C-alpha cells in the first residue's frame, strides 16, 4: 500500500488534491515550462484538479483556488508558486475562506528555489519543478487538519534603548494607551542624538 | 527606567517575562532636584564621557544638563569609596538628603506582550587607521568630538578650538568614509555609514556660520546627498565656498612645532596631486553596531546581517519585524541611519507592535509536539533536549507529555525519541518519508538531497533566489522547522532511496531560532558519520552546513560544491549503500512493528483492567 | 575537559588540530575551505588505554 493510500485509510476519506501551478508572470514561466508541470501534476496520485494561473496570489488566482475547491470538492490544496515564507499565510487564508482547514494547504517553491536560480538551465529547472510538485503532493496526502491555539497578549510593551528611536516608539505606544517600559542602559535617555549639536538638513538643535 | 539593563527574557509572543536590573545610582532620583551642591564639593575629577573627554566632571554628576531623569548619579568606579566611607562630602552637602551610599541594584520583573529593540549604534574608533594618526596628533579629531566642540553646551561652550593650543583653527579639513566603505576589508567596514556625508556638509555650514573667515576642505569618495532637502544643503555648502576634493589623503603628517597638519591627496577629478596644510583635521567616522549587540541578540533570539546589524524579517515587506514573533527593531540597531529615518522607523515599529497589542490575542501555529503515552517509556531524553523546557516527565508512571503553550515546534524531541512516541504536528515522520519517496523515487542519482531549516537555510535559499544567484538544478530541498528535526533515520532513508549526497543544513549557532537546538543536529551528524563509516559508506556523502537567511551566496556556493561531489559518487557506490542500508532498514522496521504491537497489547490490557 | 583533537574536513579533506569537548558550544568550520562538515577524530583506543 502506498503512503497516500495509507493516509486515506487512516482518515477514512478519499483524497482529493488540487494543484495550482503559478506562472508568476514570467518569473516562473520564463524558465520553468509550467504547461509541462501542469500536465505532469495531472498524472500524480490523488490529484483531481490542476489549474495554471498567471498570478496565483492575485485575487483572480485565489478565486480559481476557491472555485476549484467547490467544483471538485477538494480536501487538499497544493500551490506551486513561490516561497511559503512569503505567501503561506496568503494561501492558508484563501483555503480557509472556502472552509478548508488551512493546514491542508501545501506549497511548492518554484520561484525562489527554482526558476530564479536556474535561469540558464530550463530543462533542469522544469525537471526540478516537477519533483517539487510531486513532493508537495505526496506531503499534502499526509497532511492533517490542525487547530491553532489563541493566546492572549499582555497589554504592555518593553522598549530596549532610549535613544531617539526608542523614545519615539515609546511615545507612540504610550499615546495609543499601552503601558510602556523603556529600559536605557545609560544614566540618561537621549542616546547619540543628545550629543549632537545641530541636525541636518534643517540645522535645528538636537535637544 | 534609565540606568537599567535587560537581563533575562522568557516566554513568547504576547507573553514575555522580562527581568530588568535597575543599577544603583546612589542618588534617589525622585528626590534629587539637580542643585549641583554635591558636585561642587566632590574632590574627584574625571574625563566627561558626554563631552568625549574634552572636559571633566566630578564623581557625582549630572550626565548632561538636559538629562532625563534630571538626577545626579555617583560613578562608583571614580568615587573615593563608600565602604568604608572615604570622603562623604556629597552626602553632607545634600540638603534634600538624596544621597544613599547603601543603595542596591534592584531587579524588576515585567510582563509584556511585545518588545521593541532600539539599542542604537556605536561610533567607529579610528585608532586602528595608522595613516590618520588619530591618537598621535592632537589636532586630528573625530566628527563626534567636533559636535561637542561646536555645541554651545559643549566642552568649550561652542568655541571651536583645536586641542593643541586652544586657538580657533582657520583651515579645517574633513576626511570622509573613515571606517566605512573599505573594500579591502582589513580595517573598518565595507558598508556605507549613511550619515557621514550629510553630517560633514552640516559641519561645514556650522563652521562658516560661526567663523565666516575659516576655510573648509572636504576630502571625499562620493558625496551621498540623497534625502529630502539634502542636495540643497550640499549646494549651500559649496556656495559658501567650502572646497570639495574627490580623493582621500593617503596619510597625515604633523609639523612638530606648529602642530599643523599636512595632507597629500590626489584630486581624482583633475588628476592633480598636491600637499595641503591645515590647522585641524576632522575624521568623519562611520557608524558601527553596538559593541554589546550580541547580548541583546542572544536574549531575544535575533539574527544579524553580515555587517553585524540586527536583521529584519524581510528586507522589503517586514523591515521592522524580526525572526522572533512579537519582537521589532528600529533605529541604528537595524542599520546606520539619521534622525529622521530613525524616527520614521520607530513609529513603524510602534505601529507593528500595536497590531498585536490591539488585537489582544495571537494565534500560535499548530506545529507543536505530542507524545503518545502508549509508546513513551518515560526515559526523559526528549525533556533533556527541549530548549524550552516544554516536556514534563513522570519517571514513576514512565511517561512524558508536552506543555503545548511552551512548545515552539522545533522537533528536537521527535528526532531524539528512540521509541517513535513523538509526533510533530504538521511535520510528521510520515510526511517526511512521503517527501523523500517522492523526490528520490526516480533518478535519485542525479539529485543532491537537502534538509533545510525553515528560518535560516531555507530562507538562505530564498535569498539566493531573490538575488538571482545561479547554481546547478540538482538540489532537492525538504523544509524542517529546525535542523534538529532531522532524525538519523531520515538521512539513512534518503541513502536507502539512492541519494548520492545528503546535506543537513541549519542556522549558525548564534542564530538558532530554538535557542540551541541545532547543537543536537551536530551530535546526530557526528553519530551518522560514525555509523556510515562502520557500514563501509563514505561519511563524506553526508554534509553539514550552517547557512543564515542572509547567506544566499553561501547557499549557492554550497550547492555548487555538492553538485561537484555528487558527480564523483559512482553508481556502484550508491548500489552498495542501498544494499547495506536496506538490510539495516528492514531491521528497524521490524523493531518498530514489534514495539507497536506491544504497545497495542498493553493498551488493550489497560482497557480491560479499567473496565 | 577540552582536548587537542584532530579534525578532518569532509568537504576538502583538510586535517587540523583544535581543542574540542563533546559539550562545548563552538560552531566549527574548516580553516581552509570554511565548510562546516568537520569531523572530530575519536580518541584511539590505544590513547585511552595509555591514560588508564
Summarize the helices and strands and which ones pair or pack.
The complex is a heterotrimer of chains A (207), B (611) and C (52).
Chain A (H helix, E strand, L loop, with lengths): L2 H9 L5 E6 L11 H9 L4 E7 L5 H14 L3 E6 L2 H14 L7 E5 L1 H5 L6 H21 L6 E4 L3 E5 L3 H12 L3 E5 L14 E2 L4 E2 L2
Parallel strand pairs in A: 1-2, 1-3, 3-4, 6-7
Antiparallel strand pairs in A: 8-9
Helix pairs in contact in A: 2-6, 3-4
Chain B lengths: L3 E9 L2 E8 L14 H5 L3 E3 L8 E3 L1 E2 L11 E2 L14 H5 L12 E7 L1 E4 L3 E3 L16 E3 H8 L20 E8 L17 H15 L4 E6 L9 H10 L3 E4 L4 E4 L6 E7 L4 E7 L1 E6 L1 E3 L3 H7 L27 E3 L9 H21 L1 E4 L4 E3 L9 H5 L5 E4 L4 E4 L9 H5 L5 E3 L4 H12 L7 E6 L3 H10 L8 E6 L7 H9 L4 E6 L11 H17 L7 E5 L5 H17 L2 H40 L1
Parallel strand pairs in B: 8-19, 10-17, 11-12, 11-17, 12-13, 25-26, 25-27, 27-28
Antiparallel strand pairs in B: 1-2, 2-7, 3-4, 5-6, 9-18, 14-15, 15-16, 21-24, 22-23
Chain C lengths: L2 E7 L5 E6 L17 E3 L4 H7 L1
Antiparallel strand pairs in C: 1-2, 1-3
Structural write-up:
The complex is a heterotrimer of chains A (207), B (611) and C (52). Helices cover 41% and strands 20% of the residues of chain A. Chain A has 207 residues and is α/β, with parallel strands linked by helices. In chain A, the strands form three sheets. In chain A, strands 2-1-3-4 form a four-stranded parallel sheet, sandwiched between helices. In chain A, helix 2 (34-42) links the parallel strand 1 and strand 2. The longest helix of chain A is centred in the middle third of the chain and has 21 residues, at 122-142. Chain A is elongated, with a radius of gyration of 25 Å. With 611 residues, chain B is α/β, with parallel strands linked by helices. Chain B is built from 15 helices and 28 strands. Chain B has a five-stranded parallel sheet with strand order 10-17-11-12-13. Chain B is globular and about 95 Å long. Chain C has 52 residues and is of the alpha+beta class. Chain C has a single domain, classed as Rubrerythrin, domain 2. The model of chain C is unreliable at 48-52 (pLDDT under 50). Classes of the chains: A alpha/beta (207), B alpha/beta (611), C alpha+beta (52). Chains in contact: A-B, B-C. Chains A and B meet through helix 1, helix 4, helix 5, helix 6 and strand 5 of A and strand 1, strand 2, strand 7, strand 8 and helix 3 of B.
Amino acid at each position: 500500500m502506498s503512503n497516500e493510500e495509507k493516509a486515506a485509510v487512516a482518515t477514512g476519506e478519499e483524497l482529493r488534491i488540487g494543484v495550482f501551478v503559478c506562472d508568476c508572470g514570467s518569473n516562473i514561466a520564463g524558465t520553468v515550462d509550467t504547461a509541462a508541470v501542469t500536465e505532469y501534476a495531472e498524472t500524480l496520485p490523488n490529484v483531481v484538479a490542476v489549474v495554471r494561473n498567471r498570478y496565483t496570489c492575485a485575487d483572480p488566482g485565489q478565486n480559481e483556488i476557491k472555485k476549484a475547491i467547490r467544483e471538485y470538492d477538494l480536501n487538499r490544496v497544493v500551490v506551486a508558486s513561490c516561497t511559503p515564507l512569503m505567501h503561506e499565510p496568503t494561501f492558508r487564508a484563501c483555503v480557509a475562506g472556502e472552509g478548508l482547514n488551512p493546514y491542508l494547504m501545501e506549497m511548492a517553491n518554484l520561484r525562489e528555489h527554482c526558476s530564479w536560480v536556474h535561469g540558464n538551465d530550463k530543462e533542469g529547472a522544469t525537471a526540478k519543478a516537477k519533483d517539487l510538485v510531486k513532493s508537495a503532493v505526496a506531503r499534502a496526502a499526509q497532511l492533517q487538519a490542525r487547530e491553532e491555539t489563541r493566546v492572549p497578549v499582555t497589554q504592555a510593551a518593553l522598549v530596549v534603548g532610549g535613544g531617539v528611536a526608542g523614545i519615539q516608539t515609546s511615545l507612540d505606544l504610550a499615546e495609543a494607551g499601552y503601558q510602556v517600559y523603556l529600559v536605557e542602559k545609560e544614566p540618561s535617555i537621549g542616546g547619540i542624538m543628545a550629543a549632537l549639536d545641530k541636525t541636518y538638513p534643517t540645522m535645528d538643535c538636537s535637544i | 527606567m534609565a540606568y537599567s539593563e535587560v537581563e533575562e527574557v522568557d516566554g513568547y509572543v504576547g507573553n514575555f517575562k522580562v527581568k530588568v536590573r535597575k543599577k544603583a545610582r546612589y542618588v534617589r532620583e525622585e528626590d534629587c532636584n539637580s542643585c549641583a551642591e554635591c558636585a561642587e564639593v566632590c574632590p574627584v575629577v574625571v574625563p566627561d564621557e558626554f563631552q568625549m573627554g574634552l572636559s571633566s566632571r566630578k564623581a557625582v554628576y549630572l550626565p548632561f544638563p538636559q538629562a532625563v531623569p534630571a538626577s545626579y548619579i555617583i560613578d562608583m568606579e571614580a568615587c573615593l569609596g563608600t565602604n568604608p566611607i572615604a570622603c562623604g562630602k556629597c552626602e553632607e552637602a545634600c540638603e534634600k538628603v538624596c544621597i544613599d551610599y547603601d543603595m542596591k541594584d534592584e531587579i524588576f520583573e515585567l510582563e509584556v506582550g511585545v518588545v521593541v529593540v532600539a539599542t542604537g549604534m556605536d561610533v567607529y574608533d579610528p585608532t586602528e587607521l595608522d595613516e590618520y594618526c588619530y591618537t598621535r596628533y592632537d589636532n586630528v579629531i573625530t566628527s563626534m568630538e567636533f559636535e561637542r566642540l561646536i555645541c554651545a553646551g559643549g566642552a568649550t561652550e561652542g568655541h571651536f578650538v583645536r586641542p593643541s593650543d586652544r586657538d580657533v583653527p582657520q583651515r579645517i579639513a574633513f576626511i570622509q568614509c573613515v571606517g566605512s566603505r573599505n573594500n579591502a576589508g582589513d580595517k573598518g567596514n565595507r558598508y556605507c555609514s549613511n550619515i557621514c556625508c550629510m553630517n560633514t556638509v552640516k559641519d561645514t555650514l556650522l563652521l562658516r556660520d560661526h567663523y565666516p573667515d575659516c576655510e573648509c576642505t572636504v576630502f571625499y569618495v562620493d558625496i551621498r546627498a540623497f534625502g529630502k532637502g539634502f542636495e540643497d544643503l550640499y549646494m549651500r555648502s559649496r556656495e559658501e565656498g567650502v572646497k570639495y576634493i574627490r580623493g582621500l589623503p593617503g596619510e597625515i603628517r604633523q609639523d612638530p612645532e606648529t602642530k599643523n597638519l599636512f595632507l597629500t591627496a590626489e584630486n581624482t577629478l583633475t588628476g592633480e596631486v598636491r600637499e595641503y596644510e591645515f590647522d585641524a583635521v576632522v575624521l568623519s567616522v562611520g557608524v558601527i553596531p553596538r559593541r554589546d549587540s550580541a547580548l541583546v541578540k542572544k536574549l531575544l533570539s535575533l539574527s544579524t546581517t553580515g555587517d553585524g546589524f540586527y536583521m529584519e524579517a524581510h528586507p522589503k515587506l517586514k523591515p521592522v519585524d524580526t525572526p522572533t514573533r512579537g519582537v521589532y527593531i528600529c533605529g541604528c540597531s537595524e542599520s546606520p541611519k539619521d534622525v529622521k529615518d530613525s524616527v520614521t522607523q520607530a513609529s513603524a515599529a510602534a505601529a507593528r507592535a500595536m497590531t498585536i497589542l490591539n488585537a489582544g490575542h495571537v494565534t500560535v501555529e499548530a506545529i507543536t509536539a505530542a507524545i503518545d503515552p502508549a509508546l513513551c517509556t518515560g526515559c526523559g531524553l526528549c525533556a533533556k533536549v527541549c530548549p524550552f523546557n516544554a516536556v514534563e516527565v513522570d519517571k514513576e508512571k514512565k511517561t512524558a507529555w508536552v506543555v503545548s503553550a511552551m512548545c515552539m515546534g522545533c522537533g528536537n524531541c521527535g528526532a531524539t525519541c528512540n521509541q517513535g512516541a513523538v509526533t510533530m504536528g504538521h511535520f510528521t515522520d510520515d510526511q517526511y518519508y512521503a517527501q523523500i519517496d517522492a523526490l528520490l523515487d526516480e533518478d535519485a542519482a542525479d539529485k543532491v538531497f537537502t534538509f533545510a531549516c525553515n528560518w535560516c537555510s531555507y530562507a538562505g535559499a530564498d535569498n539566493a533566489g531573490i538575488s538571482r544567484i545561479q547554481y546547478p538544478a540538482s538540489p532537492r530541498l525538504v523544509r524542517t522547522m529546525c535542523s534538529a528535526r532531522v532524525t538519523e533515520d531520515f538521512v539513512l532513508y534518503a541513502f536507502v532511496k539512492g541519494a548520492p549526497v545528503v546535506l543537513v543544513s541549519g542556522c549558525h549557532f548564534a542564530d538558532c531560532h530554538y535557542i540551541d537546538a541545532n547543537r543536537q543536529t551536530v551530535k546526530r551528524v557526528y553519530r551518522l558519520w560514525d555509523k556510515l563509516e562502520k557500514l563501509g559508506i563514505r561519511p563524506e556523502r553526508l554534509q553539514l552546513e550552517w547557512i543564515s537567511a542572509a547567506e544566499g551566496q553561501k547557499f549557492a556556493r554550497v550547492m555548487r560544491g555538492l553538485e561537484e561531489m555528487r558527480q564523483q559518487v559512482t553508481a556502484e557506490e550508491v548500489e552498495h549503500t542501498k544494499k547495506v542500508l536496506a538490510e539495516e532498514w528492514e531491521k528497524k522496521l521490524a523493531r518498530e512493528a514489534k514495539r507497536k504491537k506491544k504497545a497495542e497489547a498493553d493498551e488493550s490490557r489497560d482497557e480491560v483492567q479499567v473496565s | 575537559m577540552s582536548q587537542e583533537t584532530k579534525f578532518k574536513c569532509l568537504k576538502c579533506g583538510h586535517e587540523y588540530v583544535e581543542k574540542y569537548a563533546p559539550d562545548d558550544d563552538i560552531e566549527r568550520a574548516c580553516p581552509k575551505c570554511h565548510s562546516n562538515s568537520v569531523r572530530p577524530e575519536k580518541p584511539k583506543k590505544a590513547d585511552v588505554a595509555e591514560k588508564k
